[in-house]
Design brief:
Order of helices and strands: HHHHHEEHEEHEEHEEEHEHH
Strand content: 15-25%
Radius of gyration: 38 Å
Oligomer: single chain
Number of strands: 10
Helix content: 25-40%
Number of domains: 2
Number of helices: 11
Structural class: alpha+beta
CATH topology of the largest domain: BirA Bifunctional Protein, domain 2
């Protein structure tokens, strides 16, 4: 039987040398290494071999099978190399052509604007403070001098969060924050807790997402971002507010930009103002973006209301402060002439790849 095995092995190698393509190689594999191959069938004939010879015969069958498997793999690799060489010879391949560039991810335009705003205020000594997006009615309205049934609540349509299995009149209302201003209370109370009798001064900016139950249009969305700012200390005046925001505008829009402040109303500041910057697209000459006025509204601000200071743990007789809030989406739209705020949330690569 050993002689027959050697003959089958030599025959298989001879046929393998004559193989010239992948199809013939596959047929050879089935013929000599498949389940019905003569070499594989030899395992079933072991009962014909004397008992004392079976270990040697079985070992030799395994050795020949492994040798044929290695010869098959070597032949397959040789055919692949030959096919590659043929393709390189017959097909034109310009290896000097540039590769296909991979697209790289990038920051969302709103994120870029937020980071630029925050970077400027950090260079002016402000720290970043974050607060939660789900607030109680108390923090979102009442502690900011907006008690129940206050007319100012009509300025912001609110998403109320229902608690499963709990009646609305059994728990304080919970809302998705309509502005980042609740962060003012959180920041003041955290600082005041360090020394209730003599709270330290505060300079913080609070970036984050806000939500309002509004009709989605080209100018309004149900979610957008804001950057809130707060400074509290002794002897802070409106001049500090004006100087801080004017310096921010110069760093944000250019050293030659002009600013102006207009009276306004916010329940949590008194007095309250809105700040405009000279249109940086037309240089104040008038264009469609600034509606031919030469000015762009960028933020609201004011001196912190005494009620809000007291709710934050600061005595309004000893402390004063200013606050401001701006919308990064609006600033991004103004800087780049974007006409539809919905572009920021559509995840359209054609829009996002421009930034």
């Amino acid at each position: 039987m050993l002689a027959e095995l050697e003959r089958l092995y030599q025959q298989a190698l001879s046929e393998l040398d004559a193989v010239t393509d992948a199809q013939a190689l596959q047929a050879w594999r089935v013929r000599h290494l498949g389940r019905k191959a003569p070499l594989m069938q030899a395992f079933g004939r072991m009962r014909e071999v004397p008992a004392e010879e079976r270990p040697r015969v079985g070992r030799r069958i395994n050795e020949l099978r492994d040798a044929l498997q290695q010869a098959y793999e070597a032949k397959a690799e040789a055919l692949r190399q030959a096919e590659l060489a043929r393709a390189l010879q017959e097909e034109r391949l310009d290896v000097t052509l540039p590769g296909r560039p991979r697209p790289y991810g990038r920051l969302h335009p709103t994120t870029r604007t937020i980071r630029e705003i925050v970077r400027i205020f950090q260079s002016m000594g402000f720290q970043v403070f974050t607060s939660r997006e789900v607030e109680t009615d108390e923090y979102n309205f009442q502690l900011l001098n907006i008690p129940p049934h206050h007319p100012a609540r009509d300025m912001q349509d609110t998403f109320y969060v229902a608690t499963p299995g709990v009646q609305a009149d059994e728990t304080p209302p919970v809302v998705l924050r309509t502005h980042t201003s609740p962060g003012q209370i959180h920041a003041m109370r955290r600082y005041a807790a360090q020394d209730p009798d003599n709270p330290p001064p505060i300079r913080v900016v609070l970036p984050g997402m806000v939500f309002r139950y509004e009709q989605i249009t080209t100018r309004s969305e149900i979610q957008f971002t804001q950057v809130e700012g707060l400074a509290v200390g002794r002897h802070i005046t409106f001049s500090d507010l004006k100087g801080t925001l004017t310096e921010w505008a110069r760093r944000m829009f250019g050293p030659q930009v002009r600013t102006r402040f207009r009276p306004s109303y916010f329940p949590f500041t008194e007095p309250s103002v809105e700040m405009d910057v000279e249109c940086f697209l037309c240089g104040g000459q008038g264009c469609p973006v600034c509606k031919y006025t030469g000015w762009l509204e960028v933020l609201g601000a004011g001196m912190v209301h005494p009620v809000v200071l007291r709710n934050g743990g600061y005595d309004p007789e000893r402390y004063s402060g200013f606050a401001f809030g701006m919308g990064p989406e609006r600033i991004t739209m103004l800087r780049h002439g974007i006409q539809d705020i919905r572009h920021f949330w559509r995840n359209d690569a054609r829009f996002l790849e421009q930034f």
